[in-house]
Structures are given as C-alpha cells and as structure tokens.
C-alpha cells in the first residue's frame, strides 16, 4: 500500500484533507506537510486587513483536519523535491519519502528581478495572507500616534483591495479619535488595466472619492523599510508599504529541476499530473496547467479539488485518471472596503454594497463548508 504526501494544505487540497479516510480505508498512509497549523483563505484576506473579519473567520485548521482523520501532519516547508528518489527535502533538514505526491504550495510575491519581495519593518507583501494581519496591527498602532503614510505598490486587484481596506481601517480609527492614514497607490502602467471597461473606471472612482491617490505610469524601483524609490528617481517616505505586484509560483519546482511552465510553476497535464514523474500531482497557484494557462485565482484551485482526490486515489491504486476541466468564465468580486465591492461575471458588472454582500455570502459559505468539516 502506498504513502500519499500532501505538500501544502492550500485551497486545492481542502477536499483531499476531508477525504483522508478514503485513502486510509484503502490501506494507504497520508502525511500532510505545511508551515503552519492554519491555512488562510485569500479571498477574505483584504477584509481581515480592513477589520471586517478576524483570523478565525478566514482560516482553516488544517493540522486538526489532517490529524483528526488519521493522517500525520508535519509542520515544515518543502524545500526540494527529488523526483527520481521520490523524496521530499524539508526546510528542517528532514526528508520524507512518498509513493504519490500532491503539491499545493501556492505562490509568492516577487519584485523586479523575480526574487522575493524585500521584507522588513513596515514592508508587507500581500501573500502570505498572514502578513496582512501583521500590517493591520501595525496600522492600528500608528493610527493612535499620527496620520501615517501608506504606499501600495501595484495597481491590480490586490492593490485595489488593500488600498480600500486600509482606508476602511483608517475610517474606523478616525471614528475613535485616531488618525486616518494618507494612502497612495503606485499603479504601474494603468490602474486595474488588465480589466475591461467599466471596471477600471469604477475602481478609480472609488479611490478618488476617498482621497486615495492613484499614480499611473510610475513603478517602484527600490523598496526598503520606510522608503520607496520610483523609476523616475523620486523618493517617498512611507511608514507602511504594501507590495501587491503580482504573484509567481513557488520556487520549489525550479530548485528541484522539475518540468516547469513559462511562469515557473510545475508543468502538469490535463490530469494535474507531472508527465515526467507520473506520481507527482499538483493544483492551485503553484502549477502551470499545460492544456491552457489559467489565471492565478483561487477559483481554479477550488475547482481542482475533486479531480485531485480522484486522481490521487487512482494513482495509488494503478487505476485510470480523470481529466480536469477548468470550466468557463468565473465570478470575481473585489472587496474595495467600506462594505462595498465591484462584481464582474462576463459582461455583468456592478458595484456598491450588493457586490460586497454577494462576496461576503459566497466567502462565508465556502469557509463554513470546510470549517464545519474540520
Ligand atoms: C490579496 C489577495 C486577494 C485575493 N482574492 C481572491 C479572490 O477573492 N478570489 C480568487 O479566486 N482569488 C483571489 N486571490 C488569488 C488567490 O490568492 C490564489 O489564487 C489562491 O491563494 C491560490 O491558492 P493556493 O492554495 O494554490 O495557494 P496559497 O493560498 O498560496 O496556499 C498555499 C499553501 O501552501 C503553503 N506552503 C507554501 N509554501 C510551502 C512549502 N514550501 N511547503 C509546504 N507548504 C507550503 C502555504 O502556507 C499555504 O497554506 C487573491 C490573492 C490575493 C493576494
């Protein structure tokens, strides 16, 4: 009987975690490797920053989910995968052998040369989501002292949501006699430029109404705690800097010499399987779906859950695999703070409170589904 290792307990592994008894019933052993006892749901991360949610509202107790069902949980990080030797090297130096491996180790925020974004006091990347909680506490402390300067680097959805929720946090602080921050978004070429009209215009109007400065056509060249240098040479002091410049798949696969897609993610075929090492599978932001590139959104990670479980069971039993169908378009709702949102599904676009309510309802339902299972 085989040993299944789930590397990372992210969004694409939620069903696998609940399905652990199915693996055990068939005589397999299951080990889950993750750096933390909890996994945070990114869709609600900006709401955590803005104070709408508390950590327990938006996280899954993945260690408990695994152990309660009879799997082993190893609190560690995968550092390297030895595909030939079917062994994981963990950050602690420990190694772990597998028969079948499934990877859901997500993505990170790089900067400039593709390396990780710098870190330090007052510098927060939008991933991991836990860093938004640290940022919230920092902003609340500053609000008691003075009006802080906040710079959000990146003018995509994460930059929009972060700026809107920092504004919400500042409004709450102002109501308690604290100081609201001044917020600037360095939007790169064009704010929300990846989206079709009317989304960029709607997002821009939300920012303008709140006094959030959006600068288009400028990029950050250097980021360090307390200071941003723009590509124009201009320097800005900043108490808090958010880095929301987009994500790249985990570097574990490149480090391991495994087949990569153009984005650096583990290349997987329509079965979510690495063709060169058929016992390695994966889902979520860390993989490149070779049939067609998928956006780095949680929607796809969630859609991959069921097929991943069936294919892991099939691979352990030597049965035929099922193809993953990514499906058609997907619903996107941006939480812009102030209990407002912008909702887009194909040609349908609307903003305001109903858009936020829709997101809040969908997100809470998703959380309940797996939290109740834990
Ligand atoms: C601010 C923000 C808001 C977003 N909002 C939405 C939204 O509303 N809707 C949407 O569809 N998408 C949204 N996204 C995109 C979404 O975050 C990603 O597509 C989603 O997180 C992908 O899920 P994942 O499980 O693949 O990766 P992750 O969420 O990154 O999870 C990876 C997991 O693996 C663990 N891990 C990492 N490295 C290792 C390692 N070396 N070894 C072991 N474990 C490891 C991590 O701790 C984590 O638990 C948002 C992104 C951001 C940044």
Write the topology of this structure:
Layout: E1 3-7, H1 14-18, H2 20-25, E2 29-34, E3 39-40, H3 45-50, H4 55-58, E4 59-60, H5 62-68, E5 72-75, E6 78-82, E7 87-90, E8 95-97, E9 100-103, E10 107-108, E11 110-111, E12 115-116, E13 123-125, H6 130-145, E14 149-153, H7 157-175, E15 182-186, H8 199-209, E16 213-215, E17 220-224, E18 227-230, E19 235-237, E20 240-243, E21 248-249, H9 252-255, E22 266-268, E23 280-282, E24 287-289, H10 298-317, E25 332-337, E26 340-345, E27 348-352, H11 353-371
Parallel strand pairs: 1-2, 1-9, 2-5, 9-23, 13-20, 14-15, 14-20, 15-16, 22-24
Antiparallel strand pairs: 3-4, 6-7, 7-8, 10-21, 11-12, 17-18, 18-19, 25-26, 26-27
Flavin-adenine dinucleotide binds at residues 7-12, 33-36, 39, 42-43, 45-46, 77-78, 104-107, 126-128, 158, 161, 250, 252, 284-286, 296-299, 301.
Describe the fold and architecture.
With 374 residues, the protein is α/β, with parallel strands linked by helices. The protein has three domains: 3-109 and 247-317, FAD/NAD(P)-binding domain (3-Layer(bba) Sandwich), CATH 3.50.50; 110-246, FAD/NAD(P)-binding domain; 332-374, no CATH class. It is 31% helix and 27% strand. It contains eleven helices and 27 strands. The chain has helices at 14-18, 20-25, 45-50, 55-58, 62-68, 130-145, 157-175, 199-209, 252-255, 298-317, 353-371, and strands spanning 3-7, 29-34, 39-40, 59-60, 72-75, 78-82, 87-90, 95-97, 100-103, 107-108, 110-111, 115-116, 123-125, 149-153, 182-186, 213-215, 220-224, 227-230, 235-237, 240-243, 248-249, 266-268, 280-282, 287-289, 332-337, 340-345, 348-352. A five-stranded parallel β-sheet has the order 5-2-1-9-23. A five-stranded parallel β-sheet has the order 13-20-14-15-16. The longest helix has 20 residues, at 298-317. The radius of gyration is 21 Å and the shape is globular. The two termini are 26 Å apart. The model has no long low-confidence stretch (mean pLDDT 96). Bound molecules: flavin-adenine dinucleotide. Flavin-adenine dinucleotide binds next to strand 2, helix 3, helix 7 and helix 10.
């Amino acid at each position: 009987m085989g040993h299944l290792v789930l590397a990372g307990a992210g969004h694409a592994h939620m069903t696998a975690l609940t399905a652990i008894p199915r693996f055990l019933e068939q005589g397999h052993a299951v080990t889950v490797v993750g750096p933390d006892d909890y996994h945070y749901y990114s869709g609600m991360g900006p709401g955590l920053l803005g104070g709408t949610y508390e950590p327990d509202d938006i996280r899954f107790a993945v260690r408990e989910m695994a152990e309660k069902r009879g799997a082993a949980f190893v609190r560690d990080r995968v550092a390297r995968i030895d595909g030939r030797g079917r062994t994981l090297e963990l950050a602690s130096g420990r190694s772990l052998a597998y028969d079948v491996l499934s990877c859901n180790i997500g993505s990170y925020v790089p900067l400039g040369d593709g390396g990780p974004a710098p870190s330090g006091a007052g510098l927060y990347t939008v991933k991991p989501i836990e860093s938004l909680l640290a940022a919230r506490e920092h902003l609340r402390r500053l609000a008691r002292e003075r009006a802080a300067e906040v710079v959000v680097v990146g003018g995509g959805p994460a930059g929009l949501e972060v700026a809107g929720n920092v504004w919400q946090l500042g409004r709450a602080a102002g109501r308690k006699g604290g100081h609201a921050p001044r917020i600037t978004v360095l939007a790169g070429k064009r704010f929300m430029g990846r989206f079709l009209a009317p989304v960029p215009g709607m997002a821009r109007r939300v920012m303008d109404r709140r006094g959030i400065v959006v600068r288009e056509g400028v990029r950050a060249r250097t980021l360090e705690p307390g200071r941003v240098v723009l590509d124009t040479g201009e320097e800005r002091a900043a108490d808090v800097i958010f880095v929301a410049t987009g994500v790249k798949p985990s570097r574990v696969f490149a480090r391991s010499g495994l087949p990569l897609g153009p984005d650096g993610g583990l290349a997987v075929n329509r079965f979510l399987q690495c063709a060169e090492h058929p016992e390695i599978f994966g889902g979520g932001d860390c993989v490149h779906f070779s049939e067609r590139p998928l956006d780095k959104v949680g929607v796809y990670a969630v859609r991959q859950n069921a097929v991943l479980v069936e294919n892991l069971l099939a691979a352990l039993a030597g049965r035929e695999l099922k193809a993953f169908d990514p499906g058609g378009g997907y619903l996107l709702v941006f939480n812009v703070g102030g209990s407002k949102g912008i909702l887009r599904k194909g040609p349908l676009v609307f903003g305001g409170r109903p858009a936020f309510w829709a997101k809040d309802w969908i997100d809470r339902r998703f959380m309940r589904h797996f939290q109740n299972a834990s």
